[in-house]
Amino acid sequence: MILDADMTVPPEDLTKFYNAYVNGNGEYLSGTRLVYPLEKESMRTLNILGNKFFSMLLTWILNQKIKDTLCGTKVISKENYIKLKEVKKFLGNIDPFGDFDLILGASKLNLKYAEIPIRYDARVYGETNISRFSHGWMLLKMTVFAMFKFKFI
Prior knowledge:
Elements: H1 14-22, E1 28-32, H2 45-62, E2 74-76, H3 78-91, H4 99-108, E3 113-117, H5 132-151
């Protein structure tokens, strides 16, 4: 289980992920912050638009509905995570954040994917490490790379 330490998602929400996993709803579960209304100051408009853009592209590339590409709340078994590390040979070392590695790797392994809606609050601790423009450019390059690996092979 992965939960960002900034407390934008309450740890109690991990129960939803655990229940979904043990009930067989998915082998790779990812939170989606874009279902419920966002708390004011939780995500900037440009970040929301960027996330929706990358979600649409990855949905098309992977033929799998993805609403939120960058939510920090995720669940995957140790066994499947180890398999994902092997898939990195196919994907290469393109993702410094790990979000796209998990999404693309899970797709390559044909893992059952599910998104769990979460409430996303304003950051309680720390400052963001994300630079909207330079990291957005990096995400775009990763998406184009994925397009060639998954769509145009």
